[in-house]
Amino acid sequence: MFSRNVDLQPHNTLAITARAEWFVAITDERQLPDVLAAARQQQLALTVIGGGSNIVLRGDVPGLVVHIANKGFSVVGEDEQTVCVTVAAGEVWDDWVRQSLQLGYYGLENLSLIPGTVGASPVQNIGAYGVEIGELIEQVQGIDAVSGEPITLAAADCAFAYRDSVFKHGLAGKIIITAVTFRLFRKPRTNLVYPALQEVLSPTDVEIDPHRIREAVCNLRRAKLPDPAVIPNAGSFFKNPVISLVQAEQLQSRHPDMPAYPVDATCVKVPAAWLIDQAGWKGRVKGPVAVHHSQALVLTNPGRGSGNELLALAQEIADNVKDCYGICLEMEPVIIPFQLD
Ligand SMILES: Cc1cc2nc3c(=O)[nH]c(=O)nc-3n(C[C@H](O)[C@H](O)[C@H](O)COP(=O)(O)OP(=O)(O)OC[C@H]3O[C@@H](n4cnc5c(N)ncnc54)[C@H](O)[C@@H]3O)c2cc1C
Hints:
Structural class: alpha+beta
Pathway: Cell wall biogenesis; peptidoglycan biosynthesis
Oligomer: single chain
Number of domains: 3
CATH class of the largest domain: Alpha Beta
Largest sheet: 5 strands, antiparallel
CATH architecture of the largest domain: 2-Layer Sandwich
Catalytic activity: UDP-N-acetyl-alpha-D-muramate + NADP(+) = UDP-N-acetyl-3-O-(1-carboxyvinyl)-alpha-D-glucosamine + NADPH + H(+)
Family: Belongs to the MurB family.
Protein name: UDP-N-acetylenolpyruvoylglucosamine reductase
Bound molecules: flavin-adenine dinucleotide
GO molecular function: FAD binding; UDP-N-acetylmuramate dehydrogenase activity
Order of helices and strands: EEHEEEEEHEEEEEHHEEHEEHEEEHE
């Protein structure tokens, strides 16, 4: 049922070489109860992956790696304004975004071209260009990784926050997401709050077509971000830190050009890319790993280094930013395996 000693390099966009002790691809969620029972019987720890675009493999993965690759979607409800579609977790995210627009279901256009799978989209509440997926999720379906029982979570129970959800905390490693239900709009509800989008799409256009937004987002992303197929990377490596207004004012008295965006009455968000760039890291190379030459937030692996080499670079950057600005950077990708013996 499981393959042994499988190379995970094709399964992570950082192209890190590591091996799974055991590996199984799930193409139909009905496989899961038997897979979980067999894993339990053999006392194998489980690690779930989708497209591997938000993980750092810091070594071989003991136990069973479960690669979610089930496909398909169906309309499960509709009213005059919205349509609810349940999409299999293994669908490629951007394939689904493209298909949703072709079907005239709107809302996902700003999230075009994000790598990965539908099943991972709630895990870090993917976001881009002013939209977070938690706003459009109706519910998340999965299977309890221990009991094998089906679980359904309403969006309100997913604790969606900036690049965060219950699937990174209370339910981390405890649920295998098999499908996600989205509530999308029948009529375009365009979101142009993001300044870079406003620049390329004139807000004076009364009706901005979501297909044009998708095209603009794809063009912006292709211009800004390295393609993992060419330069291995995991997108943004750090979250944008949220600091107190008081700390921001103190920092801005020393660094007047430091950007800070309001979060609420007491906190602001500072772009991690600005901090890393100002600390002099943009374009720096450390052996096989590097900081991208035009996107300081993106760590790359052009020389096919190890996860530990990449994490050492990330730690050096985070320590340096802490020394310079007193701000702690938090990593965005998930480190696998969680603990090494
Ligand atoms: C070039 C590039 C650009 C990116 N841009 C963005 C961006 O703009 N915005 C953004 O939010 N992210 C971005 N990302 C990060 C990444 O694409 C997303 O986090 C994506 O949702 C990860 O999907 P995945 O299938 O590759 O997940 P993986 O990397 O395989 O897994 C990520 C985490 O989710 C868990 N997981 C995956 N599938 C399941 C499942 N079915 N059930 C339970 N847990 C699961 C894994 O255990 C792991 O903890 C970018 C990445 C790259 C490489």
